């Protein structure tokens, strides 16, 4: 997620991350930990990439299922193609080539690609999976996710293990399906086995059979001998030879097809898990380096550091994660000197102080980010204009409270000004039931247990 956001910000511009930065600083830890915390905070936003990530992983899983089904059908087709319908004898050499030929060729190409430094991680199956996934997912937010995956794989040189799991996994499904279909056909149909040649001597087939039968014989399986091979070239077939040739084909498929793919898949899987434990962000990237002063500041700035936003932050309630302590707090936002704070009706334990200065506001926001509260009461002076900065601060404060209410403090008689405040609070999203004109009603809301 962090890498995808870095790519998005590098290509499309920086995001509004003031709340995410505050959340990351509250999490603490090393620079990488804070980067990840910032990324997750931004990803969970309505326009974040978390939803795109969830959709992309679902589509990637769907693509894998489709490819696995096609691989299984391909294995069944291979077995049916090499054996036929039983009306003709089965050419032993063609059957063996049909079962293992393409598998051995692709395995050799994969080994060559793995031994070539410039093409580490190349895999036809892996590239096919990416192509299918990209075709299923065309959402703009998801465009950075595959690239982020590849960047991390390249940094850790984990592409070979990642692609190998896909390639060997699909071949394992294909060969296993071919084995099941082969056993089913041999069990339900009667096949005869022959070999034919025009220019090769019989000893060539005897030698090939002996080489491939050596390993199954070590496992105690009955394999065709030289006489069996020679009889397969004649016009008469011996009944017992059918079982020998069937066992020869099945054992060759298992020992020279399924077993190597299974071992390679296990090897890639173990390497992949080892690589995943070592994944780290490349903190030298410019997109990360520019965030370090903001995520790990040497000191807190006191002046204006950012231009005014194009839109106000969204007003939030009912979302802050509570730990069951039921904390409640009331803060005063730019109250006039003639308005006493705290009011007599407010218990001292609930007093969060005045937020008249930038340092006080930042300190309160950091404290709320570290420990959200159940209820937050914000007292404002209705004699002031409902300016953009005040409304933005109210929206920011509401992020860290399960319920937030506004108290129009004082005894101002300017009904027009109060009306402007109510209109602004309505646009911000503050419900009428969470706006109070008296300290008694406001403090009663803060103390009571229901809403």
- Straight-line N-to-C gap: 37 Å
Report the sheet with the most strands, covering strand number, pairing sense and barrel closure.
5 strands, parallel
Tally of alpha and pi helices: 17
- What is the rounded Rg? 36 Å
Note the overall shape: rod-shaped
The SSE order reads HHHHEHHHHEHHHHHEEHEHEHEH
Order of strands in the sheet with the most strands?
4-3-5-6-7
Mean pLDDT: 79
- What is the beta-strand fraction? 5-15%
- Low-confidence parts, pLDDT < 50 over ≥5 residues? 300-312
- What is the number of strand segments? 7
Structural class estimated from helices and strands: alpha/beta
Query: Which percent bin holds the helix content?
Result: 55-70%
The quaternary structure here is: single chain
Give the domain tally: 2
Provide a short characterization of the protein structure.
This protein is α/β, with parallel strands linked by helices. It is 59% helix and 7% strand.
Structural commentary:
The chain has two domains: 50-277, no CATH class; 328-447. The protein has a five-stranded parallel beta sheet, sandwiched between helices. A two-stranded parallel ribbon has the order 1-2. The model is unreliable at 300-312 (pLDDT under 50). The protein is rod-shaped. Helix 6 (124-136) crosses helix 8 and helix 8 packs antiparallel against helix 11. The protein has 451 residues and is an alpha/beta fold. Helix 16 (415-428) links the parallel strand 6 (401-408) and strand 7. Helix content is 59%, strand content 7%. The chain has helices at 2-12, 18-27, 31-43, 50-83, 92-115, 124-136, 144-156, 159-188, 202-218, 226-231, 239-277, 286-289, 292-295, 358-370, 388-398, 415-428, 439-447, and strands at 90-91, 193-194, 328-333, 351-354, 373-380, 401-408, 435-436.
């Amino acid at each position: 997620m962090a890498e995808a956001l870095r790519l998005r910000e590098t290509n499309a511009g920086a995001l509004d991350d003031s709340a995410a930065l505050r959340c990351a600083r509250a999490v603490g830890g090393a620079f990488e930990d804070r980067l990840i915390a910032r990324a997750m905070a931004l990803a969970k936003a309505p326009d974040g990439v978390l939803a795109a990530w969830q959709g992309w992983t679902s589509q990637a899983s769907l693509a894998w299922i489709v490819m696995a089904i096609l691989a299984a059908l391909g294995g069944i087709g291979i077995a049916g193609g090499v054996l036929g319908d039983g009306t003709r004898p089965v050419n032993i050499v063609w059957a063996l080539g049909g079962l293992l030929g393409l598998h051995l060729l692709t395995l050799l190409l994969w080994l060559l690609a793995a031994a070539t430094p410039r093409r580490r991680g190349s895999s036809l199956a892996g590239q096919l999976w990416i192509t299918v996934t990209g075709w299923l997912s065309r959402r703009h937010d998801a465009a950075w996710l595959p690239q982020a995956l590849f960047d991390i794989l390249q940094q850790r040189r984990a592409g070979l293990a990642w692609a190998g799991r896909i390639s060997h996994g699909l071949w394992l499904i294909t060969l296993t399906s071919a084995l099941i279909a082969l056993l089913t056909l041999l069990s339900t149909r009667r096949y005869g086995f022959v070999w034919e040649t025009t220019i090769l001597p019989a000893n060539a087939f005897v030698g090939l059979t002996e080489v491939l039968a050596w390993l199954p014989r070590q496992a105690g399986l009955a394999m065709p001998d030289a006489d069996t091979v020679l009889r397969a070239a004649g016009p008469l077939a011996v009944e017992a030879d059918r079982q020998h040739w069937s066992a020869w084909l099945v054992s060759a498929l298992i020992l020279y097809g399924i077993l190597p793919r299974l071992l390679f898949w296990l090897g890639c899987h173990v390497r992949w898990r080892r690589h995943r434990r070592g994944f780290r962000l490349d903190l030298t990237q410019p997109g990360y380096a520019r965030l370090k002063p903001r995520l790990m500041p040497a000191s807190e700035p006191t002046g204006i550091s950012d231009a005014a936003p194009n839109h106000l932050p969204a007003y939030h309630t009912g979302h802050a994660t509570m730990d069951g302590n039921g904390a409640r707090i009331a803060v005063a936002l730019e109250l006039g000197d003639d308005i006493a704070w705290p009011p007599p009706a407010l218990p001292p334990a609930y007093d969060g102080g005045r937020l008249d200065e930038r340092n006080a506001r930042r300190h309160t926001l950091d404290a709320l980010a570290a420990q959200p509260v159940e209820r937050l009461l914000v007292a404002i002076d209705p004699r002031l204009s409902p300016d953009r900065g005040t409304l933005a601060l109210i929206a920011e404060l509401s992020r860290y409270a399960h319920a937030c209410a506004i108290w129009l403090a004082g005894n101002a008689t300017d009904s027009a000004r109060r009306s402007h405040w109510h209109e602004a609070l309505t646009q911000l999203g503050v419900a009428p039931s969470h706006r109070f004109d008296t300290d008694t009603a406001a403090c009663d809301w803060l103390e009571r247990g229901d809403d």
